[in-house]
Automatic annotation (TrEMBL):
Keywords: Membrane, Transmembrane, Transmembrane helix
An example Gene Ontology molecular-function term: transmembrane transporter activity
Protein name: WAT1-related protein
Keyword Lyase: no
Organism: Chenopodium quinoa
Domain of life: Eukaryota
């Protein structure tokens, strides 16, 4: 009984990053639709991002203050500048472009382009020598091929829309579409730009966590600084619309609270913690789950139109992504095997050598 309990705890601890990332993708998929409903109701996306991250910072702050009081590094000017840039890439710039693109596209389209983040993150990791790429090995070819296939899928999504998939029945829920959805040029540009800056943020996360190993405090700083950056963008976007800052409707307040507490606080913490444990590529490998959930919900429940270009491009991106992940998994197997052999060699070298000492036989008593 005790052994089974210990094994269960070990298994849960090993699977914790996987569970966290599944929860992140489920929450993110749900967030697409409530934010789209709020935007169609008239909420400005930049105002939403500002309020959301203020709520997220308030939600994380008490935990960061008390739980990391002894482990939190001292804030220096250089560290603050780095966190400012980290917040800009993770919140101020990326999230604003990301949700602005939702005005011009659909949740299914936007979730499909998010699958480019693992590929872009891998390319940046190779550039900064966080990843290795050996084209003489099958795993290296798989990573390179997967990267090219994913980028081809991005081009399909961006350049080819195709006919809409015919609907066989009437969906139970209808979301009122805004006039912004007619613009299918600005939407892909904004969504792909947000994916590029998000990939840079994921790559930067590994460096920042090494110098500031306090994920809760880092999440708090990123939320508050990102909210200030977003407020600066918002003041330009709604300069002559002070009423845009006032929120009264239930859908607006619910979206801000859900986005702040769940996405900007809980999801942010789970992403940072999982990235610290498993690395940035592991975190991004769960993006296709979000796409699957969004497409199912969008088509069968909400009544979003699905276009053949988005489906073909999305499937192509996922195929390329898992080629990349297969190569990553093989890299991990080789790395673990090499480390094990090195450990065994070190143990053998440090073992004391046994010396055989021959003891001369005693002369017999007769002599």
């Amino acid at each position: 009984m005790v052994v089974d309990f210990i094994n269960m705890r070990v298994t849960c601890r090993r699977l914790r990053p996987h569970i966290f990332m599944v929860l992140v993708q489920m929450a993110s998929a749900f967030l697409y639709f409530i934010t789209e409903a709020a935007f169609n109701h008239g909420m400005n996306p930049h105002v939403y991002v500002t309020y959301r991250h203020i709520v997220g910072g308030i939600a994380v702050f008490p935990f960061a203050y008390f739980l990391e009081r002894k482990t939190r590094p001292k804030m220096t000017l250089n560290m603050f500048v780095e966190i400012f840039l980290y917040s800009l890439l993770g919140v101020g710039l990326t999230i604003n472009m990301y949700f602005a693109s939702l005005q011009y596209t659909s949740p299914a389209f936007l979730s499909a382009t998010v699958n480019t983040i693992p590929t872009l993150t891998f390319i940046l990791a190779v550039i900064f020598r966080l990843e290795t790429l050996n084209l003489r090995k099958h795993r290296g070819l798989a990573k390179a091929t997967g990267t090219l296939v994913s980028l081809a899928g991005v081009m399909v999504i961006a350049l080819y829309r195709g006919p809409a998939i015919r609907r066989l029945y009437e969906p139970p829920i209808h979301l009122t579409k805004s006039e912004f959805h007619k613009n299918w040029i600005k939407g892909p540009i904004l969504s792909l730009a947000s994916c590029i800056s998000w990939s840079i943020w994921f790559t930067m996360q590994g460096f920042t966590l090494k110098r500031y190993p306090a994920p809760l405090s880092l999440a708090t700083w990123a939320n508050f600084i990102g909210a200030l950056q977003s407020a600066a963008f918002t003041s330009l976007a709604v300069r002559h619309q002070p009423a845009a800052w006032v929120k009264h409707s239930f859908i607006d307040i619910a979206t801000i609270l859900f986005g702040g507490v769940v996405s900007s606080a809980l999801n942010f913490i789970m992403i940072v913690w999982s990235s610290k444990e498993k690395g940035p590529v592991f975190v991004t490998m769960f993006c296709p789950l979000q796409t699957l959930l969004v497409v199912i919900f969008a088509y069968f429940i909400v009544g979003e139109k699905l276009y053949t270009g988005s489906i073909i491009g999305g499937v192509t991106i996922i195929i390329g992504l898992y080629l990349l992940l297969w190569g990553k998994a093989k890299d991990q197997e080789v790395r673990v095997s090499t480390e094990r052999q090195q450990s065994l060699s070190a143990i053998k070298q440090n073992e004391p050598k046994m010396q055989i000492v021959t003891v001369p036989e005693k002369e017999s008593l007769d002599h």
